[in-house]
Design goal:
- It is globular and about 35 Å long.
- By secondary structure, the chain is mainly alpha-helical.
- The longest helix is centred in the middle third of the chain and has 24 residues.
- Helices cover about 70% and strands about 0% of the residues.
- About 25% of the residues are buried.
- It is built from 5 helices and no strands.
- It has one domain.
Length: about 100
Amino acid sequence: MIQFNRYPHINDLVSYYIAKINDKKISEIYENGVQSEIEAEAFCKFIWLLVEHVHADEESGNSVLGSVDNTEMLPDLSYEITGYMRKTGYFAVWERVSENS
């Protein structure tokens, strides 16, 4: 399982939106870790979808993890995803997906 350690609340945020979006492939990647460039791209696209959902939930006043505004977690998310993609060797994928999102 992918685990974020510096900002452990990001684990809760990612888990919440994986459940909300209900994408089996993303759930499997999260459980097993990124194993290929294709999985890295899918996971990076999911992260940007998560960001969109965070903003939409805030704008709609939806409480997520006990807070209506989770946008303050986005810098922590960026830190954790950047570190994870560097560690797994897929940082270039993260940059490419981020440029196109």
